[in-house]
Structures are given as structure tokens and as C-alpha cells.
Specification:
By secondary structure, the chain is α+β, with helices and mostly antiparallel strands. It is built from 30 helices and 53 strands.
């Protein structure tokens, strides 16, 4: 209980709190600070030092009450120490009470683990009567050691602590230096502090109220469920932003209820709604679990990788994407309209003429609102800024249809607000001076009750009051590069706020949830100047608070009961708790299995059925663990002590057979790399462990083949080759010679030429003296073929070695032994071979060739790159997988894919009309078009020129290709060139890319009719369309119609647009001319957006030119005003811009080779990266 052995001296640099409170860590800015507004020559006067016996003055000076805490009780107690040197090593002062708790001073005259110092502590005074286990008291205290004869001589220390049963004392190990306090003169006085072995200790204690229950808590063994009834979410790395959003949505009861209504009871429904099902599971676990819940399953369902897990994403974008996905999953269910009913409001964008009766407006829905923080002091100011009316007048008049240019009012007004209002506060903004995103830490107030009525349109429906109660405050602490997210949420209508900080949930006061998250400057100190706070994540000091609200959740007051229903009305679907409980039972079983793993072993069992289902080399594929693969071995986890007899009985029960009708065979690894049966396992009393040690290799596991016998004539089971002696070790070399009379077990496989399959058909027993041709009658009988069918027989010696057998040789002469495999096929004459080729051009005709195919077989998935010219009957058939040989040529590849597509398409697909593209190994997107060159094989296509087996990682996926069905053959396509055109239908604000195929020998005149067909362009505008090339974001040249197609540079971008009317009037004699224009940010090398061509008028003042430019680029108002214009000499990327003023004349400043630059921020910056990094599949 006592913290005796630890160093507890507290000084000005000491901070004993382990709980990070972002509103604290406050330092004082002295008058020497550069930010001080006080004159250094006039420092504030130092207050007089109080006397030790003036208790109120001492308390006011050194232990002032904090406005952040409410005092429960205070006490001052004085203890006179006598006979200092004769006191015990550990001495307790008298017990006194404060706030109903006993207290006392703990004193070490000779020091506690610090012999040069004296030690004083404050401790709870229960003594031998221990307090309750959950007892605690939060106290601010000060200990003062003084000379009772001279109260001006003293030393004091202050601290605060949460006193508990485990930490019952707290104080100062190095309270005072022993030599100093006994010295004849203490601190300039003419007498010692400890005089005549006497001194006085005064304890000042202030016990504080703890409304949250976690004041100064160290959170060791803290139980969120026990303390609050709720649990948190574990942080995966940088997912605190996700956790705060999920907790907000979870505690919006109507949202949780709607998520539970998404159907996920069947496997198909769960597959179609992976993310919704994962969210259901997460919500249920938040309800039912006793500890913090992981979000890993949810982020996995989103398709996120470690990159997204360790990068903080935009909360607003995440919320919108999640809502969109959930709304899709809710279609057709009882929750179909739940999300729009909760989160969707309507706003109207309008343009209303002042002097004529004309208004243009557009109403659109919104799911959340982004409010400006910069320049606004409160939510009310942000809303008023949002609906601020702009007057269009003077040069900026509005062109009203039928009325010409008119003065007008432009703005946005709200037609309705949703029942759950999400306000995204724009705490992060782009700083043009720093060229970076920065966090806005300005003070921004938000109310507990918000009235949105003043922001509604006059004609809006006001039947339901727009009074909102604050439900949640999502907070960001830190800056752009380092920070943390957490949330203050109110689970019930009239309840308290709770702080949800990843895996920890604690109670919170209204001040902590609201006032402490306004942001802004720390409170000033009249004596020592302004205060600074330390960012707990960057460790930097600032005068502004780094913790502030970035998202607010308000709920309409009249809908509180519906949006926050009682807990018993938010029950999960019935199947969910059952399934999760089953998973927990299974996880517990697996845990128990791991603990008992040393008692069990895996036995791999192959049967007659698995052999007949197998379509590969050897007996079966022993490494397959697929539950759907009928040829995969059955894997049994059995006791190592199980006997062979019990094992045989177990297998019989599994196969629903008589134990006498089956017998296990030992499978051994032969020297040639095959795995074959070696001999039966008849030793009934031998354990599985003994059999495995004796007959199998450790690396491959214990493998068994189960042979099934047929009843004899007398109704009993007999085995043709009973084992009469026990071999001492397994036959690893495959050299055991059969006797001339003992039958051998031989496995048969059938190669079906027409179906191009190889399957096991069972086994037969043959005598070593039988000839190879003696197998024919048994094969014909097994297959049900008529007598006289000619067969070709092959021995499968190993995977890469298949040899045709000679019919007249004996099996012994052919070196056949137990467990060997003989493959047979129908013999094909010339006509039969031609017939097969006509039906299946890619078919192989001999078993030997088919074995070569199997060895080099790869399964390749084909996905359509484009659906043009594709006419499959079922969309699910567009993607498919087929087996190919690594040796297959490009022609064979095209033939096999064409065969597959012909089967599922309405029209036959020609191999010559197929084109293939490799897939990028990282993104899965199309990479490189495969060219049908001589020597091209599947191996070189999938693995590159070096082929498989090398240590490097191929740049393309090795198991998938994209395909296209072309309008023409590849040979014809080689005579054409793909020209990429970007059509600009609306100035430069909209881009539509098209690819057109043009003969290489043609001129550019043939591009226009092809573009017309692709873009559905009307005939009347064809004469006014022009094409121009651009490079590095700048116009390169206008393309004349006679430009040869073959001369086009594929690295240049070609734009097509309708020539503006003002340019159509230009003549060769006119002094007006066309100039090239481009957009850049800060410097010409940072180009962006679409470059364009503009008509420059001779002698025109630039203020008038800007009006035409505004119309040309489609940007007006404030957006256009932010653009700066410059002459860029020669259009060079690193040329210094020459800025243009309104009174300048552009034609005087712009040379023949110069470009006009528009300096503005890149509004599409990082859009692609953001899309890549934040997505929910």
C-alpha cells in the first residue's frame, strides 16, 4: 500500500499523472518570452511571502483552487515534531479527517531511500482497517515544514494525487536537504529551520469532487464495461478517426437499428453485403462484449491494406462512402429509407433578379454540411456565412434568359434539415503562403441547443421545429502531421457525455465535452502573462489549444425518442449472436487443440473414390486441402496412441463399410519423387505413432491409401496378396521385387481424348508373369467397352516421364511392381484423329502429350478489358478460368479462349479477333498488350522473357489476363493506330476521353467522323471542330487536317473542341491573334488542368480581356477573382512569370512565342491518391 521504496520528490518539472488530458500540460510564458506584451523594464512586483502560520494566505498563495475542479472539502492540520533525532525510521503523525476520509503524514527523519534528504508523504489513515477495494479520493495537497518559533522560515511542496487502496501514499522523497535544514542559518535567516530537534509540519488538503470517476486515474486495470456499461474500439495503428466515427454511428440508435435490418442470414446475403455484415458484427460486439472490440474485421471487409490502416483519412469522405455503401445494401429491405430519413436535408442554390421577376434555382440533397471555421467564431456565424447573399451587379451582372443582363442576388438557402445533423468543421485548410494544409486552431463555439430556423427559406416547411440537441463532439488533438481523434458522445436523451478514446470509455463533464473543445488561446495569467499549452503528440508549445472539435452531431429535439430508442429496441438479427457464439466455441476448441497438439497427429487418407475423382499425376494430390475437391485426401486428427485395428474400424465407420472389407496401405516416397502404396498395414496392435515412425517420413506426414475389397463367392472378404512377413522398414527405393506368383496391385488411369481429361478408374491385381496385353480384357470389362476395342497403354513412371508399353512383354520384364500406374486410351486412327481436331482444334491426341500438358498446366483467369463486341448470354460468363500449358503458343491461347467464348456467346468468336493484355501485379489493372510474335508462349506472356523459376518478382500477374473481342482481326489492327482524343464538350470544364482506330496510312481528316460516331456529335458542328496537341500541360500546336496519322506522338495529348464564336471571326489580316494558355500553381513548372487556346484582341485593356477569359474557362465570381495572370516567356517551365495588371494591354506584353499563364491552386490535387487510399469495396 505504501509507496516507500520509490523516489517521490516532486518539483516544478515533475508530472505524476499518466493520463493525458489535452486541456492541461500548461506552461507559463514569462515576461522574457518574445510574445509578451509587457514592458520588460516594468516587471510585476513579487507578492510578499506569507508566514507559515497564516494558513489562509499560504493556501491562497501556494495551493489556489482551480476553476476547473469543484471542491468537496478542505482541511488544514498541524503536527509539531519533537525529539527529531530520536524518532523511529518511519513515523506517522496524528490522524485527521477531510471529506470523511482519514489522513495522516508519513515522516522519514533519516530519509526514505535518500540518506541526504528527509522524506514526507501524505497517506490515507485507515491503518490496519483497510478501506474498500474501490475506495479512492482525489486530493490536492501541500506539506509545509516550518520553524515553530519563526514562521518566516519554512519549506513547502505541493502535489495532487488519486489516492487508492494500491496507491495509498504520495509525496516527496527528497522533501528537503538534511544538511540545510539543520544548518545554523537557513536560507539567509539567523537560525535553523529545525531548531532544538523540533519542527512543525502543516498539511493542507483539498479533496475534489470527481464527477467522471477518472480524475488523475492511471487506468491500470481500468474496466470500461464495469465503469460505464460500454466498451471501446481498439486502434489498429492510425484508426482513431475511424473509431470515433463508428462510436458516433453506433450510439445513434436508429442508425444501429437500420444496420441490423440489412439481411445477412444466408451465405449469399453475407457475400453480397460484406461490409454491412462486418458492421453488424461490430455493433453487436460493442453491445455484448466485455472488453474493447477490434475493427480489423471491418477494415478487412472494406478491402483496406496496411497503407490505409496506418494513414489517417478524411472523416467526412469516409462517412459519405460508408453511407453510400450501406444505402445500397438497404435497398429492397425494411430499412430502405432509414438513412435518408435520418441524415438527408435539402438546400437550394438560387439566382434571383432584383428588377425583374426571374429566378433560377436548383434544389439538391446533402448528407452533411461543411462549415467554415476560419473567420467565424461560432456555428451561428458559419451558418450565416453559408447562406450569405452575393449581389451580381456592374460588370458581373447575370444573363437572365429573356431579360438580358440583370442585377441579381446569388446564394444558398436551406429548405430542410435532417433529423440527425452532421456538421463537419473545416479545421484543416490549404495555406497558400506555406503551400501546405494547416490546422485552424481558432476558438469556435458551438451550443448545446442549436436553433436552425433562421437559416431556413421563408417558404420552407416549418411544421416541425428545427431545434437540435448536441449528441456528439468528435475531437482532433494535435496538428496535421501528428494527432489523435476521440469523441464525446451522449448515449441517451437526458444522460451524460462519455469520452470514447479508442479502447477506453470514461465519463465526461459537460465542460470537458463542449467548452474545452472550442479551441482558441489558453487563458491569460495577469501576473505571468499568457499561457502556453504543449501538444501531446508533437511535443511543441503553442498559445492555442491543439484539441478542438472537428465534427458535431446534432439530433432534432422532436425526434430524440425515435433516434435514440431504448436499448431493448435495438436487438441484432437472431442469427448474429448464434453465429458469433459458434465462432467463439470453435475458437475455444482450436485453442484447446493447440494445447493438446502433442497428443494428436494428422493422418492423410486417400480412398478409391478420391483416386477416381483425381485428374492429375500420381495417385492423388496429397497437398490439396480444399473441402470442395473430391480428390483431396481426408485429413483426420487422431490420437497417436490409437491402434491400427481401431484406426481401421474408424475408417470403416467413416465410409459406412464393414471393417473387414477395407485395409490400409502404407504410402511411401519413391526415389523418383512419386508417392505410391508400398504394402498393407495389417499389424492390429501397432499404434499410429509407431507405424508413422516405422513406415513414413517426418516431412511428408503419415499417408494411407484405403483399399476396398469385394465379397467372394462364399460371402467373405479376401485379399489377393496377403502379407506374410513384416518388413523392417518402408521400401523407399522402389526395388522390392515381386515373386512370380504373388499378385501385384496396379492402378489404372483413363485418358479421354474427346473430353481431354485424365482420371483414375480403380485398381486391378495382376501376376508379374502376365503380359502387358493381358490388361486389355480387364480394362474393357471395367470400362464396359465391347471386345475388340484397340488400346494404347502407357506407364506413368513419374510426373515428367511417361513411356508407351510394349504389349507382348511381361509385367515383370516391364519392371511393374505394387502401386505402379498404367494409363490407357482408345487407339485413334487417322480419321478419328482428324474428327477430334475439327471439334476441338487445341486438343492433344496421346496420353504422353497430355501428361506433358499436365506438368506445364496453369490455370489462367480471363477478365474482359472492354465489353464492346462481346455478346455472352449471361454476364457472369464474361470472366472465366481455363487451363493452359506453359508451352502453349499464342495461337493456342487464342484458340482456347475463342472456344470458351463461343460456348457462352450468341455468336461464334474468331481467335484472330482476340487481343490480350497482362494485369499489373500491384493494382490488377491492365498493363501491357500481348503481341503475337514468333516464339511467344504462355510462359513468356505470364512470367516475362526470363520465364518462371527466377527469384525476381514479375511486374504482371502470373495467373490472369484481360481479353478484348475486336471488330477486326489483329492483323488488320496492326495496320491501324489508336488515337486518344479528349473531347471538350463544355469549354474546358468537362473532359470526355475517346480512343479511335485510324489506318496508319490515313490523314487526320479521318479522325473526325470516327470521333463523331463515338461522342454522338451532331453534323452541324463538325465544320467548327478543331484538334490541338498539348504537352506538359501546355498547348503545343493546332493539328491541320492533313497531318499524317503515323506522325502522331503518343506522348502528346490531343484535345478536340468546338471553336468559340469570337475565334471563328478571326481573319489572316486581323491584328487579333490566337494565344496559348495554361494553368499552373505557384510556378510554371507545376502545371495542371486543361490548356486552351484564346483569342487575344489587339489593344484591349486586360480588365476587359479578363471578362472574356472568365467566359472562356467557365469560372466566375470569387473563384475567378483568385486567379492571377502572367506572361510566361516562351512557355518555358522555369521561366519567371511576368504578372499582368488590369490596366495592362495583353497584346503589348505577350510576344509571339509567349504563353498566357493562369496561376491558381490545383483543385484536383491528390484526388486520385485520395480515391486510391480511401475506398470501401
Amino acid at each position: 500500500m505504501d509507496q516507500i521504496g520509490s523516489d517521490m520528490q516532486l518539483d516544478s518539472d515533475y508530472d505524476e499523472k499518466t493520463y493525458v488530458n489535452d486541456t492541461e500540460s500548461v506552461a507559463l510564458i514569462t515576461n522574457d518570452d518574445a510574445d509578451s506584451m509587457l514592458d520588460e523594464s516594468l516587471p510585476p512586483a513579487e507578492p510578499a511571502k506569507p508566514m507559515a502560520d497564516d494558513h489562509e494566505a499560504m493556501k491562497e498563495r501556494f495551493l489556489p483552487a482551480s476553476p476547473d475542479y469543484e471542491t468537496e472539502a478542505e482541511a488544514i492540520f498541524t503536527w509539531d515534531i519533537t525529539d527529531w533525532r530520536s524518532l523511529p525510521k518511519r513515523t506517522h503523525g496524528p490522524t485527521f479527517n477531510c471529506a470523511g476520509h482519514p489522513w495522516r503524514v508519513l515522516f522519514f527523519p533519516a530519509g526514505n531511500a535518500a540518506s541526504e534528504s528527509v522524506s514526507f508523504y501524505l497517506e490515507q489513515g485507515f491503518g490496519d482497517e483497510k478501506p474498500a477495494e474501490d475506495w479512492y479520493a482525489c486530493a490536492q495537497f501541500m506539506l509545509v515544514l516550518s520553524n515553530p518559533n519563526d514562521p518566516s522560515i519554512y519549506i513547502h511542496h505541493e502535489a495532487n494525487h488519486r489516492f487508492t487502496l494500491e496507491e495509498g501514499d504520495w509525496g516527496f522523497t527528497r522533501f528537503a536537504d538534511k544538511n540545510k535544514i539543520f544548518a545554523a542559518s537557513y536560507d539567509g535567516a539567523d537560525r535553523p529551520l529545525v531548531e532544538g530537534d523540533t519542527a512543525r509540519v502543516t498539511a493542507y488538503i483539498r479533496v475534489l469532487k470527481d464527477p467522471t470517476g477518472v480524475l488523475w486515474h492511471n487506468f491500470v486495470n481500468y474496466d470500461s464495461k464495469k465503469e460505464t456499461g460500454m466498451v471501446g474500439l481498439r486502434n489498429q495503428g492510425a484508426t482513431c478517426y475511424l473509431n470515433s466515427l463508428l462510436q458516433s454511428l453506433y450510439l445513434t440508435g436508429a442508425f444501429r437499428k437500420a444496420v441490423y435490418q440489412i439481411p445477412t442470414s444466408t451465405e449469399q446475403e453475407r457475400t453480397n453485403s460484406t461490409s454491412a455484415y462486418a458492421l453488424q458484427r461490430l455493433f453487436y460486439r460493442l453491445q455484448a462484449d466485455q472488453v474493447a472490440v477490434s475493427t480489423q474485421e471491418l477494415t478487412h471487409s472494406f478491402g483496406w491494406e496496411s497503407r490505409q490502416i496506418f494513414e489517417q483519412q478524411d472523416v467526412q469522405e469516409l462517412s459519405r462512402i460508408l453511407m453510400e455503401k450501406l444505402e445500397t445494401h438497404m435497398k429492397g429491405t425494411e430499412a430502405e429509407k432509414a438513412l435518408p430519413d435520418m441524415f438527408v436535408g435539402k438546400m437550394k442554390t438560387y439566382l434571383k433578379c432584383i428588377n425583374v421577376d426571374y429566378e433560377s434555382s436548383r434544389t439538391e440533397e446533402y448528407w452533411d454540411l461543411q462549415l467554415n471555421v476560419s473567420g467565424c467564431k461560432s456555428v451561428d456565424e458559419s451558418f450565416r456565412d453559408y447562406i450569405q447573399v452575393e449581389t451580381l451587379e456592374g460588370d458581373n451582372k447575370y444573363a437572365a434568359e429573356g431579360y438580358g443582363l440583370q442585377e441579381a442576388k446569388k446564394g444558398v438557402i436551406f429548405e430542410s434539415f435532417p433529423n440527425v445533423l452532421h456538421l463537419q468543421l473545416k479545421r484543416f485548410e490549404y495555406d497558400f503562403q506555406r503551400d501546405a494544409m494547416m490546422k485552424v486552431n481558432d476558438r469556435y463555439e458551438f451550443p448545446d441547443v442549436l436553433d436552425c430556423t433562421p437559416y431556413l427559406d421563408e417558404t420552407a416547411d416549418k411544421s416541425e421545429p428545427c431545434i437540435y440537441h448536441l449528441h456528439g463532439v468528435l475531437v482532433h488533438s494535435g496538428d496535421l502531421n501528428a494527432g489523435h481523434y476521440y469523441a464525446f458522445l451522449k448515449p441517451s436523451k437526458d444522460g451524460d457525455f462519455f469520452r470514447f478514446d479508442d479502447d477506453r470509455v470514461t465519463r465526461a463533464t459537460k465542460r470537458e465535452a463542449i467548452d474545452d473543445n472550442f479551441g482558441g488561446d489558453y487563458a491569460t495569467n495577469g501576473i505571468n502573462g499568457a499561457a502556453k499549452g504543449q501538444n501531446p503528440y508533437t511535443r511543441q508549445w503553442s498559445t492555442k489549444r491543439s484539441n478542438n472539435a472537428y465534427m458535431l452531431v446534432y439530433i432534432r429535439a422532436s425526434q430524440l425518442d425515435r433516434i435514440l430508442p431504448p436499448e431493448d429496441q435495438m436487438q441484432p438479427p437472431e442469427h448474429l449472436p448464434i453465429r458469433i457464439q459458434e465462432e467463439r466455441v470453435a475458437a475455444e476448441r482450436r485453442r484447446k487443440e493447440r494445447e493438446e497438439a502433442h497428443l494428436y497427429m494428422n493422418v492423410y487418407v486417400a480412398t478409391e473414390a478420391s483416386y477416381r475423382a483425381y485428374e492429375g499425376t500420381d495417385i492423388i494430390n496429397w497437398t490439396s486441402e480444399s473441402e470442395t475437391d473430391l480428390s483431396a485426401p481426408k485429413i483426420y486428427r487422431l490420437l497417436r496412441s490409437m491402434t491400427v485395428a481401431d484406426f481401421t474400424a474408424f475408417l470403416a465407420q467413416e465410409q459406412n463399410a464393414d471393417a473387414k472389407s477395407i485395409r490400409p496401405w502404407i504410402m511411401v516416397n519413391r526415389q523418383n519423387g512419386t508417392v505410391r502404396p508400398d504394402h498393407p498395414l495389417p499389424w492390429a496392435d501397432m499404434t499410429l505413432q509407431e507405424a508413422a515412425d516405422k513406415f513414413s517420413t517426418r516431412n511428408s506426414g503419415f499417408r494411407i491409401f484405403v483399399e476396398a475389397a469385394e465379397k467372394g463367392e462364399e460371402g467373405d472378404y479376401t485379399w489377393p496378396n496377403e502379407v506374410v512377413s513384416t518388413p523392417s522398414s518402408p521400401n523407399m527405393q522402389g526395388v522390392r521385387q515381386p515373386s512370380s506368383t504373388q499378385p501385384m496391385i496396379i492402378f489404372l488411369k483413363y485418358f479421354d481424348v474427346e473430353r481431354q481429361t485424365l482420371r483414375g478408374v480403380g485398381h486391378v491385381y495382376m501376376s508379374p508373369s502376365d503380359r502387358v496385353q493381358d490388361l486389355a480384357p480387364k480394362i474393357l470389362d471395367r470400362m464396359g467397352w465391347e471386345v475388340g476395342v484397340l488400346l494404347d497403354l502407357y506407364e506413368e513412371i513419374k510426373q515428367t516421364y511417361v513411356e508407351q508399353m510394349k504389349p507382348k512383354l511381361t509385367l515383370a520384364a516391364s519392371e511393374i511392381q505394387d502401386g505402379d500406374i498404367i494409363c490407357f486410351q482408345r487407339h485413334l486412327n487417322e480419321d478419328e484423329a482428324k474428327a477430334v481436331r475439327q471439334t476441338t482444334p487445341s486438343a492433344v491426341l496421346t496420353a504422353k502429350e497430355f501428361y506433358d500438358f499436365l506438368i506445364n498446366r496453369v490455370y489462367v483467369k480471363f477478365v474482359p478489358k472492354a465489353t464492346q463486341n462481346l455478346s455472352v448470354r449471361n454476364d457472369d460468363d464474361q470472366a472465366f478460368s481455363i487451363s493452359l500449358s506453359r508451352k502453349d503458343t499464342y495461337d493456342t491461347l487464342a484458340t482456347k479462349v475463342a472456344e470458351q467464348l463461343t460456348l457462352v456467346s450468341e455468336h461464334a468468336v474468331e481467335p484472330s479477333h482476340l487481343r490480350f493484355t497482362t494485369a499489373n501485379v500491384q493494382s490488377g489493372k491492365p498493363r501491357t498488350i500481348v503481341k503475337p510474335q514468333q516464339g511467344t508462349t504462355i510462359l513468356s506472356i505470364l512470367f516475362g522473357a526470363a520465364g518462371a523459376g527466377y527469384s525476381y518478382q514479375p511486374a504482371q500477374q502470373t495467373d490472369s489476363l484481360f481479353y478484348e473481342v475486336l471488330e477486326m482481326s489483329l492483323k488488320d489492327l496492326e495496320q491501324r493506330k489508336t488515337v486518344k482524343i479528349i473531347w471538350l464538350p463544355e469549354g474546358i470544364t468537362k473532359e470526355e476521353p475517346y480512343d479511335v482506330l485510324v489506318p496508319k496510312s490515313a490523314q487526320f481528316t479521318e479522325v473526325l467522323p470516327l470521333l463523331q460516331k463515338r461522342a454522338n456529335l451532331p453534323d452541324e458542328i463538325l465544320d467548327s471542330i478543331r484538334f490541338y496537341e498539348a504537352h506538359s500541360g501546355k498547348v503545343y500546336k493546332v493539328l491541320p487536317p492533313t497531318t499524317p496519322i503515323v506522325s502522331l506522338n503518343e506522348f502528346l495529348t490531343i484535345y478536340a473542341e468546338r471553336i468559340p464564336e469570337e475565334e471563328a471571326t478571326l481573319t489572316p489580316d486581323s491584328k487579333d491573334r490566337l494565344v496559348w494558355c495554361f494553368h499552373f500553381e505557384k510556378e510554371p513548372s507545376k502545371h495542371h488542368s486543361v490548356p486552351f487556346i484564346f483569342a487575344m484582341k489587339e489593344g484591349e485593356v486586360f480588365s476587359e480581356t479578363k471578362e472574356r477569359l472568365s467566359k472562356r474557362i467557365g469560372i466566375k465570381g470569387k473563384g475567378f477573382e483568385k486567379i492571377r495572370f502572367a506572361v510566361v516567356k516562351g512557355g518555358q517551365a522555369y521561366s519567371r512569370p511576368v504578372w499582368i495588371e488590369d490596366e495592362d494591354v495583353l497584346s503589348d506584353k505577350l510576344g509571339p512565342d509567349d504563353h498566357l499563364g493562369l496561376e491558381e491552386p490545383n483543385r484536383q490535387r491528390n484526388q486520385w491518391n485520395k480515391y486510391e487510399s480511401l475506398n470501401i469495396r
